[in-house]
């Protein structure tokens, strides 16, 4: 039997990176520098996030262009909430024109109080739309939540909705980040039992800043285990110790995931190279240039 995923047992793990669109010229310089530093790792692809309602449409396209010019295979994220079918169609056409062959299809999160929810309600509807519009042109990734999406009515309902996205035509999935490897393996087992054989790649969040991590984790429903939280909080302003501990925790998690059969790793780089580079060098394929 194939452990944790669809790919044949001898398929090489897929290692990828995630960036976000820069807001200004200084942020753009940081993105370019980080992407240059990380390029030597030869990731399978780099993804670029997309703000709900198309709020970062131009920024996402700019970042896609920057990364393509640096030699990356790029997978733009596309979210449907707050967008019309027409605007999604235009974006898909622009990506096809640019030779993009992979997308991360999401529902997205509408900022509270922002009006129109758009014409497609769930990521499943977007996957279905992209398949109808563009056939098999794109490899479609979707999001998975080993610790449950925070708005789901329960773990079984959330799993069922994940399975629906895969059935609608997604090729593989990337998870929300997590620090409990057991939650990932449990999710993959439950998805496999429902017939999902496609790769479900763990999303990895390097730990570099406790306040920011705690805020993100509250928002997205990722649990920071108590022992990790206590250690991180204890470092206060001692950034070097925090980073060293964070590195050990996340590199250890990555190794456990790969040893347990995870079909790759997707790094949330936060547009910073150092932490991802250090983890990759410990657990990833060797850089080739
Ligand atoms: P869905 O799969 O549509 O699920 C959303 C919620 O609806 C879940 O609770 C699900 O259980 C429920 N649901 C689904 N179908 C149904 C149904 N038929 N009936 C009732 N309930 C249903 N956000 C961005 O804005 N931009 C990004 O670039 C971005 N990138 C991301 C990348 C990854 C790898 C991940 C894990 C998340 C990313 N997000 C991004 C966040 C994501 O948009 C949010 O988590 C969002 O709330 C859900 O998106 P989804 O695609 O998982 O939604």
Automatic annotation (TrEMBL):
Look up the EC number in the record and give it.
Answer: 1.5.1.54
Q: Which Gene3D superfamilies match?
A: 3.20.20.220
Q: Which GO terms describe its biological process?
A: methionine biosynthetic process; tetrahydrofolate interconversion
Q: Which reaction does it catalyse?
A: (6S)-5-methyl-5,6,7,8-tetrahydrofolate + NAD(+) = (6R)-5,10-methylene-5,6,7,8-tetrahydrofolate + NADH + H(+)
| CDD domains linked | MTHFR
Record's keyword terms, sorted: Amino-acid biosynthesis, FAD, Flavoprotein, Methionine biosynthesis, NAD, Oxidoreductase
Q: Which Pfam families match?
A: MTHFR (PF02219)
Q: Which cofactor does it need?
A: FAD
Annotated metabolic or biological route of this protein? One-carbon metabolism; tetrahydrofolate interconversion; Amino-acid biosynthesis; L-methionine biosynthesis via de novo pathway
Q: Which GO terms describe its cellular component?
A: cytosol
Alphabetized GO MF terms:
FAD binding; methylenetetrahydrofolate reductase (NADH) activity
Q: Which InterPro entries match?
A: FAD-linked_oxidoreductase-like, Mehydrof_redctse-like, MTHF_reductase_bac
* PANTHER family named in the record: METHYLENETETRAHYDROFOLATE REDUCTASE (PTHR45754), METHYLENETETRAHYDROFOLATE REDUCTASE (NADPH) (PTHR45754:SF3)
Report the family membership. Belongs to the methylenetetrahydrofolate reductase family.
Q: What is this protein called?
A: Methylenetetrahydrofolate reductase
């Amino acid at each position: 039997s194939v452990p944790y995923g669809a790919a044949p047992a001898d398929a090489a793990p897929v290692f990828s990176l995630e960036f976000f669109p820069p807001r200004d010229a200084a942020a753009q310089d940081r993105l370019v520098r980080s992407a240059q530093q990380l390029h030597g790792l030869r990731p399978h692809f780099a993804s670029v996030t997309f703000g709900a309602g198309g709020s970062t449409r131009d920024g996402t396209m700019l970042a896609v262009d920057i990364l393509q010019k640096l030699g990356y295979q790029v997978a733009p994220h596309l979210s449907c909430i707050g967008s019309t079918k027409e605007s999604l169609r235009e974006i898909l056409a622009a990506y096809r024109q640019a030779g993009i062959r992979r997308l991360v299809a999401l529902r997205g999160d509408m900022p509270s109080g922002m009006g129109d929810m758009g014409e497609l309600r769930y990521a499943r509807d977007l996957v279905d739309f992209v398949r109808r519009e563009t056939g098999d042109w794109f490899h479609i990734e979707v999001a998975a939540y080993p610790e449950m999406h925070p708005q789901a009515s329960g773990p079984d309902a959330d799993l069922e909705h994940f399975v629906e996205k895969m059935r609608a035509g997604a090729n593989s999935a990337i998870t929300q980040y997590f620090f409990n490897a057991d939650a990932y393996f449990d999710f993959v087992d439950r998805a496999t039992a429902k017939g999902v054989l496609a790769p479900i790649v763990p999303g990895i969040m390097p730990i570099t800043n406790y306040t920011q991590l705690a805020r993100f984790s509250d928002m997205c429903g990722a649990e920071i285990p108590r022992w990790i939280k206590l250690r991180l909080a204890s470092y206060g302003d001692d950034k070097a110790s925090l980073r060293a501990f964070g590195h050990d925790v996340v590199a250890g998690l990555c190794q456990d995931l790969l040893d347990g059969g995870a079909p790759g790793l997707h790094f949330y780089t936060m547009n910073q190279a150092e932490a991802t580079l250090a983890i990759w060098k410990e657990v990833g394929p060797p850089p080739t240039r």
